[in-house]
């Protein structure tokens, strides 16, 4: 199965990526903004039947890239406590840029279905996740928000970052998948030419 989804996580650990993080995620952003590669390339998740893949999301790993922020050890959802290792602003900024890069590289549309937080998986796709609440809190929030609302905010940030990185000179084309656009255009031209011959 081709890579069609990105699941966004926090590690529930400290600000440095550890060996467990590297096993479970394809790439991790540390508290200071450093990016650390995981043990598996994203392509390892094209198929999970061989057991050699990044197991980042329960029953939702095939065709899905797992990206994480090293943060939130000791955090509690209720009553809320961000713990000693909250997501840092620089970490979030680098994470958003990283997700934007992966989405662009793998031609993944930034939608609720395709680019989502771990907390959104059960709501959006109906795959039970045993109360996972990453990512429902971001720097500047007084308490966790609804998974979809926080996810929508993250997706807006990711789209804006894609414009900044990949489409600086052509903002009107931001977010347009040129391969898909070319295929659709060729299809429409073909249909038009057939209709002219009839």
TrEMBL record:
GO biological process, one term: peptidoglycan catabolic process
Domain N-acetylmuramoyl-L-alanine amidase: start-end pairs: 2-122
GO molecular function: N-acetylmuramoyl-L-alanine amidase activity
Protein name stated in the entry: N-acetylmuramoyl-L-alanine amidase
Organism: Litoreibacter halocynthiae
């Amino acid at each position: 199965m081709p890579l069609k989804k990105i699941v966004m996580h926090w590690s529930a650990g400290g600000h440095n990526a550890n060996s467990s993080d590297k096993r479970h995620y394809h790439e991790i952003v540390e508290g200071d903004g450093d990016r650390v590669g995981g043990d598996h390339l994203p392509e390892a998740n094209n198929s999970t039947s061989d057991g050699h893949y990044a197991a980042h999301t329960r029953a939702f790993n095939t065709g899905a890239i797992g990206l994480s922020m090293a943060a939130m050890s000791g955090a509690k959802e209720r009553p809320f406590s961000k713990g000693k290792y909250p997501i840092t602003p620089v970490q979030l900024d680098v994470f958003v840029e990283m997700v934007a890069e992966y989405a662009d590289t793998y031609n993944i549309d930034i939608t609720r279905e395709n680019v989502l937080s771990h907390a959104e998986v059960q709501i959006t796709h109906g795959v039970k996740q045993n109360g996972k609440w990453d990512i429902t809190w971001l720097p500047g929030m007084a308490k966790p928000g609804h998974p979809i609302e926080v996810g929508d905010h993250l997706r807006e940030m990711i789209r804006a970052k894609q414009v900044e990185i990949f489409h600086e000179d052509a903002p009107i084309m931001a977010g347009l998948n040129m391969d898909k656009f070319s295929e659709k255009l060729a299809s429409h031209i073909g249909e038009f030419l057939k209709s002219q011959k009839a």
